[in-house]
Amino acid sequence: MRHQQILDKLAAREIVQAMNEDVARWTGAQMSYRGRSHTEVERAVIPPVLARWRCLFDAVDATAAAKDIGWVALATLLHKYGFQDSAVTTRALTSVDELNRHVVLSDAFERQSPAIKALLQSAPTPLTRRPRNPGTVTFLRPGDVVSIQLADRFHAAFVHELHGANEFPVIEFYAGSFAQPPTMALLADRPAAQASARARFGVVGLTFLPDPAHQVVALAAQHSEAPHGGDPQAGGGLWSLTDIIDLPGATAGLFGDRE
Question: ∠ CA 9-66-112 to the nearest 5 degrees?
Fold first, then answer.
């Protein structure tokens, strides 16, 4: 049994593609630090990747089958890139049983479930070189307004432009954080989260819309009014580069009032 065989049997191309891009890209970034041990890389990869995909696992509008497929995909991809988390593996093994019990996938998946479980429980082989960085093309467009979940709060952002050949969007966060995705009425005439472009980020990995991880939700398209008060100042930067996996760290301290 190979990793790709498991992923193919999940019949969930969007989830698998998005998750694979996240794990491969973030693993490569963490392996680029010279002198890091495999254990240190593993500790740097698993928690932030799991935090992003927990939006799917906790989503009230996601089906139980989608969540089970997500757990199996996550355990498989972590194993593929040389990592293993006991809690993720345990949940994935339960999900294999649930998918079979509800006859969600094919007969082949059920027949090969013992082999799938055996692979997920086996010791993964650490990578000896950085994985290939998958090229991405974002589905977001200038004028889009999205809600991005970070931990248990929701933050609205406006798409100003696309970088390169539609590689990733440059967004600006509105001020405030919310208990649920905000309405456009709440965002009317709302300022940027910080002045002088400090709330503007080029976000690598902010690719899919709808987002298979359920972290990013569309609020509006072709919106003409960006948050005000955040324009770059002479001599200052235009925006900061980050990754959607590291967005919680990049935006720490950015938001004030909770609504």
Answer: 25
- Least Cα distance to 88 among 67, 109, 69, 74 occurs for 74
Q: Is 251 exposed, middle or buried (0-12, 13-18, 19+ CB in 10 A)?
A: buried
Q: Which residues lie below 8 Å from residue 111, measured CB to CB, with a gap of 6+? A: none
Which is nearest to 127 in space by CA: 15, 53, 26, 52? Answer: 26
**What's the DSSP call for residue 17?**
H
pLDDT of 61 over the 90 cut: yes
CA-based nearest residue to 87, from 95, 104, 64: 95
Is pTM beyond 0.85 here?
A: yes
Q: pLDDT digit string (tens) for 161-217? A: 999 999 999 999 999 999 999 999 999 999 999 999 999 999 999 999 999 999 999
Check: CB of residue 133 under 8 Å from CB of residue 25.
Answer: yes
Q: Which long-range contacts (CB under 8 A, 24 or more apart) does 40-45 make?
A: 42/82, 42/83, 45/78, 45/81, 45/83
Q: Comparing C-alpha atoms, which of 30, 77, 251 is closest to residue 148?
A: 251
